[in-house]
Amino acid sequence: MAAAAAAAAADGFRALDEASLVEYIKATPALRAQLGEQLEGLAIKEVGDGNLNFVYIVAGPAGSFVIKQAIPYVRCIGTSWPLTKERAYFESLALKEHGSLCPNHVPQVYHFDRPMSLIAMRYLEPPHIILRKGLIAGIEYPLLAQHMSDFLARTLFFTSLLYHATLEHRHAVAEFCGNAELCRLTEQVVFSDPYKVAQYNRWTSPHLDHDVEAVRDDDILKIEVAELKSMFCERAQALIHGDLHTGSIMVTSDSTQVIDPEFAFYGPMGFDIGAFLGNLILAFFSQDGHADKDNDRMVYKQWILRTIEETWNLFHHKFVSLWNENFDGHGEAYLLDIYNKPELQLLVQKKYMTDLFHDALGFGAAKMIRRIVGVAHVEDFESISDVTKRASCERRALDCAKTILKERRKFETIGQVISVVQEISAP
Length: 427
Description:
- By secondary structure, this protein is α+β, with helices and mostly antiparallel strands.
- It has helices spanning 2-10, 18-26, 29-34, 87-101, 131-137, 144-157, 166-176, 180-192, 209-216, 219-234, 269-290, 298-325, 342-373, 379-382, 387-407, 414-425, and strands at residues 43-46, 53-60, 63-70, 73-74, 78-82, 109-113, 118-121, 129-130, 238-240, 249-251, 256-258, 265-267.
- The strands form four sheets. The protein has a five-stranded antiparallel β-sheet.
- Helix 6 (144-157) runs parallel beside helix 12 (298-325) and helix 11 crosses helix 13 (342-373).
- The longest helix has 32 residues, at 342-373.
């Protein structure tokens, strides 16, 4: 780690704390301007509760912003797990690209400093909270499905070959190929470590010991996961967020903001869709652990299921609508002089969307499994203090994920998936 620190210092990087951040802001015109040049009485608070970075809220009398700095290791593990700080560069690129496509749901970037691996962006002020925390608290968000389906449809369609010419697509793919180290981290923690004995794996033990062994011994599961891993590594379908779980979304009753795209690269669309839906399914299974005598969470569980169903159905509608609006555009996946009959266009779209649906189910299930038996767990379960109750919730979620992953091609509608979730959750 000393070598990593020396290398970081050599290229102009230094990790900031609250005191040195004030000096950095004073020396940076774009940040001073964002504060209306009023630098007296700045309030700075470190709020990073994620696995990787330091995050500061900076507030002054005339303005505010968030500073996010990547450090050259995995924060939740420590210096024993080095990680490139170049991830901040790709996060800033993705924020700007996704922000241009969906400005209502992506915070604006004010400043990026590549040597310092530092991004300054809009502060999502209260009552914005992390969606995962809202789900734990049992708060309904009536516009969540509408907003997330909009974000997914626009960011995925407009960065795919359905809209791009192949030449511009390859240039964009090449730019994001540099984020290989974070892709490799995903390959390890999502597609590899949960299926073997690995240093950082953990689970609710001893309650889930046999369940973890069953995952490692499930040959059919391993074959299916290998296919998903290949797709993740090989398929440059669209610019994906790469880590679109409920901790990467901030919400109020009428605002939905997607943050933290440092894992962004050109990958399979289903990975983003699946990450969001899979984390909602995890939230669903955690609810029994948060129920009490005053609220059995049954109404809330139904809201989560409706949100899952509405998100996919709205996404499907919006994505196909964008496709129809641009079928005669410059996208080169399906050239109009070849796919020149309405009935052929419909067949193409049906196959494309069916494949995407199955991809999303597979990736979503894989993301669920890794959150129960891998390195980084979710607060939905971790905040259940009764260990026996927590393990019971996790076991059902794990069983559900394995079923969906192995049988994903049998599903024709999201309603059929919801039925499986309900069956497995029944006491």
